[in-house]
Specification:
Elements (H helix, E strand, L loop, with lengths): L2 H14 L4 H14 L5 H45 L1
Helix pairs in contact: 1-2, 2-3
């Protein structure tokens, strides 16, 4: 079981489903979780990678919330403009 093989399986499975940023993050988390560090340096790098993925997930949630809010505002503006015509 190699990282390349796992990544290729992940990509093949993803082609069948609708892709979102959260799908990619989850896939990366799963891949990182199966990697077994052999040295302290690798262990620290994996810990750092896990932390970075948590931050990416947090920012992705913020972006998704902001996008939803902007879509709502756009709909309100479009309704207001169509009402004026």
């Amino acid at each position: 079981m190699s990282l390349t093989t796992d990544w290729q399986k992940f990509l093949l499975n993803e082609e069948l489903d609708e892709k979102t940023i959260f799908t990619y993050i989850q896939g990366l988390q799963e891949i990182i979780s199966i990697i077994k560090p052999r040295t302290m340096t690798e262990k620290r790098r994996l810990t750092l990678a896990k932390g970075h993925l948590r931050e990416v997930r947090r920012y992705a949630r913020r972006m998704q919330n902001d996008m939803s809010l902007l879509e709502e505002k756009l709909n309100i503006l479009e309704e207001h403009n169509s009402g004026d015509e």
